[in-house]
């Protein structure tokens, strides 16, 4: 993987006090990881099929609080050829229960990225923390009218009549997810560019449907000049390295999601490709190594 460099923004007056963007190169492709903030989440949601004492032990080993922890929320901006691609869009600002997320519009400005320069949006799936940013005027009103929004056809179809029977979420969440997805599809229906299994958005930038987390959940694979990077969306969580068989409460098909996660981490450990994911600790850039019957998270070293 090409050398990774810390971002240095030249956008005056919009910077924040903590690093919230992280650029790296994948051959000729430029990638900027941007933090949309953090979400509080009940820790039981991280492992719905784990014994209580086993989850407690893992949380203790990771120095995480026992009941509620902060879940990072990452998006990315990818530049390849003449395309500037926003990968997921964060939470937006319409959810007062999550005051520390929904930072995307401000942080695009801090990174010197004009929303009007974005030619394409690719969505891993339609959960509210991946699409909400597209629904607030702080970002929506600044996007170009000919914007293309790419997602798996199976994802759009699922949210017309979503099934939450295999999920384990806090009571209000399914209704909010359903409402937000319906609003998004209503607003952006004419701009959707659905694909079935795989689609190349720009040179070296390929979307691939995995299913599992949601029926149309997709990952984004980047490849250029011998370098590889995968944005895994919600296919991999922080628990997934040590406990790839643990189910996340937001998984719509938990067994398939676990198979997808194990297969992806096995592949990345074998080929040395770099990994980004929506809910790994910012900037989430890492490699994957085998550790017995599980995996090891090997974070990128920040280069100041």
Description:
The chain has 304 residues and is of the alpha/beta class. The protein is 21% helix and 29% strand. The relative contact order is 0.17.
Number of extended strands: 14
Number of helices: 7
Q: Could you give the distance between the termini?
A: 17 Å
| Main sheet specs | 7 strands, mixed
Descriptive keywords:
single chain, 304 residues, alpha/beta, seven-stranded mixed beta sheet, five-stranded mixed beta sheet, 7 helices, 21% helix
Helices and strands in order:
Elements (H helix, E strand, L loop, with lengths): L20 E6 L2 E14 L9 H10 L6 E13 L2 E5 L16 H7 L9 E3 L5 H4 L5 H4 L7 E5 H6 L14 H16 L3 E4 L2 E5 L2 E5 L8 E7 L2 E5 L22 H18 L2 E3 L9 E6 L2 E6 L5
Offer a concise description of the structure.
This protein has 304 residues and is of the alpha/beta class.
């Amino acid at each position: 993987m090409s050398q990774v460099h810390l971002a240095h923004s030249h956008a005056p007056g919009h910077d924040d006090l903590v690093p919230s963007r992280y650029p790296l190169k994948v051959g000729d492709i430029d990638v900027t990881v941007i933090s949309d903030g953090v979400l509080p989440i009940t820790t039981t949601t991280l492992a719905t099929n784990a014994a209580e004492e086993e989850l407690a032990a893992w949380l203790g080993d990771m120095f995480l609080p026992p009941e509620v922890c902060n879940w990072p929320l990452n998006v990315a901006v990818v530049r390849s050829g003449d395309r500037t691609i926003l990968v997921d869009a964060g939470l937006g600002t319409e959810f007062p229960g999550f005051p520390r997320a929904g930072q995307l519009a401000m942080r695009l400005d801090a990174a010197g990225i004009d929303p009007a320069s974005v030619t394409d949006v690719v969505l891993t799936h339609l959960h509210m923390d991946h699409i909400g940013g597209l629904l607030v005027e702080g970002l929506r009103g600044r996007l170009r009218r000919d914007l293309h929004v790419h997602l798996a056809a199976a994802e759009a179809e699922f949210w017309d009549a979503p099934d939450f029977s295999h999920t384990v979420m806090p009571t209000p969440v399914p209704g909010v997810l359903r409402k937000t997805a319906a609003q998004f599809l209503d607003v952006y229906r004419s701009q959707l560019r659905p694909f079935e299994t795989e689609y190349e958005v720009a040179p070296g930038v390929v979307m691939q449907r995995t299913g599992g987390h949601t029926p149309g959940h997709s990952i984004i694979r980047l490849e250029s000049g011998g370098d590889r990077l995968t944005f895994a969306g919600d296919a991999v969580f922080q628990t997934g390295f040590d406990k790839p068989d643990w189910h996340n409460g937001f998984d719509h098909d938990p067994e398939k999601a676990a198979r997808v996660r194990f297969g992806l981490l096995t592949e990345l450990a074998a080929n040395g490709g770099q990994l980004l994911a929506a809910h790994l600790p910012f900037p989430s850039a890492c490699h994957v190594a085998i550790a017995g019957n599980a995996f090891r998270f090997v974070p990128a070293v920040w280069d100041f």
